[in-house]
């Protein structure tokens, strides 16, 4: 399924002929939308990239909007899997768990910086699609806020506003895609090395900000 596709190829970095057609279409759309933007990519191009006819794409997705919805569903599902796995594998220490989540979220983008374009495209969604995405990621947000509040109450994290802390982390990620010129002004570049630098700065910032 989509989870196996993303794990094998780096969230849409190429498609395999043995992968089910629907998942190959999703994988191609993730990559092309992320690199060039939703508006610049046609269903014909996605069909050519996958190696099928446009009618095959339309069999699985009745319209481009339906394909965008499929991409958002797939990416939000995979993000849930990645975060859950990172939390389960991390030691029972809140700073270590937060650090593990940051590393896990950045990992696909480090492998394929073009995926940052998906964050840019999210900022351009229409109201219905934005609401659909919000519903999909809301459980992740709720779990994060509950966890931060619980650890603050236990004295294992510095007391603060869990919502603002989560928003700062999210704003860092979305800002990479939506405000690249501001980052270039301070010498940052949108490549794997730049992403690792940004990831490590965010990790250090959160650790320093949240240490009790």
Task: Describe the protein's architecture and organization.
This protein is mostly helical and 212 residues long. The protein folds into two domains: 2-60, Orthogonal Bundle (Arc Repressor Mutant, subunit A); 64-210, Tetracycline Repressor, domain 2 (Orthogonal Bundle). Helix content is 75%, strand content 0%. The longest helix has 27 residues, at 127-153.
How are the secondary structure elements laid out?
Layout: H1 2-9, H2 21-36, H3 43-50, H4 54-60, H5 64-89, H6 94-111, H7 116-122, H8 127-153, H9 162-178, H10 180-184, H11 192-210
Helix pairs in contact: 2-3, 2-5, 2-7, 3-4, 5-6, 5-8, 6-11, 7-9
Low-confidence parts: 1-18
CATH homology group of the largest domain: Tetracycline Repressor, domain 2
Q: What is the CATH architecture term of the largest domain?
A: Orthogonal Bundle
Overall geometry = globular
- The separation of the N and C termini measures 42 Å
Number of discrete helical segments: 11
Percent of residues in helices: over 70%
Percentage of residues in strands: under 5%
CATH topology of the largest domain: Tetracycline Repressor, domain 2
At the first level of CATH, the class of the largest domain is Mainly Alpha
Q: How many domains in all?
A: 2
Q: What is the makeup of the main sheet?
A: none
Q: Average the pLDDT over all residues and give the rounded result.
A: 81
Q: How would you concisely characterize the structure shown here?
A:
The protein has 212 residues and is an all-alpha fold. Helix content is 75%, strand content 0%.
């Amino acid at each position: 399924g989509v989870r196996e596709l993303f794990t094998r190829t780096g969230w849409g970095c190429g498609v395999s002929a043995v992968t089910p057609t629907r998942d190959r279409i999703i994988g191609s759309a993730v990559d092309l939308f992320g690199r060039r933007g939703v508006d610049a990519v046609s269903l014909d191009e996605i069909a050519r990239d996958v190696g099928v006819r446009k009618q095959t794409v339309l069999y699985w997705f009745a319209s481009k909007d339906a394909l965008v919805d499929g991409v958002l569903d797939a990416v939000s599902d995979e993000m849930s899997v990645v975060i859950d796995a990172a939390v389960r594998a991390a030691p029972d220490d809140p700073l270590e768990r937060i650090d593990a989540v940051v590393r896990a979220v950045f990992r696909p983008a480090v492998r394929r910086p073009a995926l940052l374009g998906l964050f840019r495209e999210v900022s351009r969604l229409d109201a219905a699609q934005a609401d659909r995405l919000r519903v999909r990621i809301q459980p992740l947000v709720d779990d994060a806020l509950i966890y931060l509040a619980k650890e603050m109450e236990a004295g294992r994290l510095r007391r603060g506003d869990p919502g603002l802390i989560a928003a700062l982390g999210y704003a860092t990620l979305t800002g990479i895609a939506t405000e690249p010129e501001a980052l270039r002004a301070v010498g940052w570049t949108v490549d794997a090395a730049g992403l690792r630098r940004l990831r490590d700065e965010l990790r250090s910032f959160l650790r320093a900000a949240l240490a009790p």
